[in-house]
Amino acid sequence: NAGVMQNPRHLVRRRGQEARLRCSPMKGHSHVYWYRQLPEEGLKFMVYLQKENIIDESGMPKERFSAEFPKEGPSILRIQQVVRGDSAAYFCASSPSGQSYGYTFGSGTRLTVV
Amino acid sequence: SQQGEEDPQALSIQEGENATMNCSYKTSINNLQWYRQNSGRGLVHLILIRSNEREKHSGRLRVTLDTSKKSSSLLITASRAADTASYFCATESNTGKLIFGQGTTLQVKP
Fold first, then answer.
1. Which residues of chain A make contact with B38, given a CB cutoff of 8 A?
2. Which residue of B4, B48, B95 is in closest CB contact with A48?
């Protein structure tokens, strides 16, 4: 079991470009959560998805951010027209159901906007 | 908004000593979880304690939960240099969303 896979590990984008972050959950897991971590801070919830459904997007900024988890393939967190404030580490976690026995996190994608 | 408040923010101890970190939260919870994060890495799940439990052990880890005070503590006994990391508590809502504290940075000196 390869665990939760995130790619790329590091992503550099110029202001105004688009960033696409990918998360492949653990095998058999159909629930994915995205979190953002600013330097020296804890993680902040962004969005919770099941296959083809957004369950809770209360932590997503209203503009420029979107997420999907298609029937086939990884979950994608998309940030359009990136700004310097988007620079952060983005982590995803997966679980087999909505109930938790402790989540497995990926190693994260570190986005740097220059 | 962040639910958890952790203290201390930073803790430095000698190898072999015990380390205690505290976490407070604001709303009702299903469970409370502790995670470790090594510098520049992802989070590793350490232990989960449910709202109807008061204490839980896992190896050198001991977690307590006081729902009346909305607080939890993580005790690491006989610390090792390899325990150097940031430790986060997280409360889980009904939807499975985790709300993290700001974390405690632990340094264990050899």
1. none
2. B95
Residue range B51-81, pLDDT digits in tens: 999 999 999 999 999 999 999 999 999 999 9
Q: By three-state DSSP, how is residue B81 classified?
A: helix
* CA pseudo-torsion sign A83, A88, A92, A93: negative
Nearest-5° Cα angle at B42, B40 to B45: 135
A chain contacts of residue B102, beta-carbon cutoff 8 Å = 41-42
- Please say whether the beta carbons of A68 and A9 come within 8 A: no
Chain B environment of A31 (Cβ under 8 Å)? 96
Radius of gyration for the alpha carbons in chain A, expressed in angstroms and rounded: 13
The residue-averaged pLDDT of A57-75 equals 95
CB contact under 8 A, B96 and A106: no
Site of tokens 């008061």: B54
User: Scanning every residue of chain B, which has its alpha carbon at the shortest distance from the alpha carbon of A40?
Assistant: B102
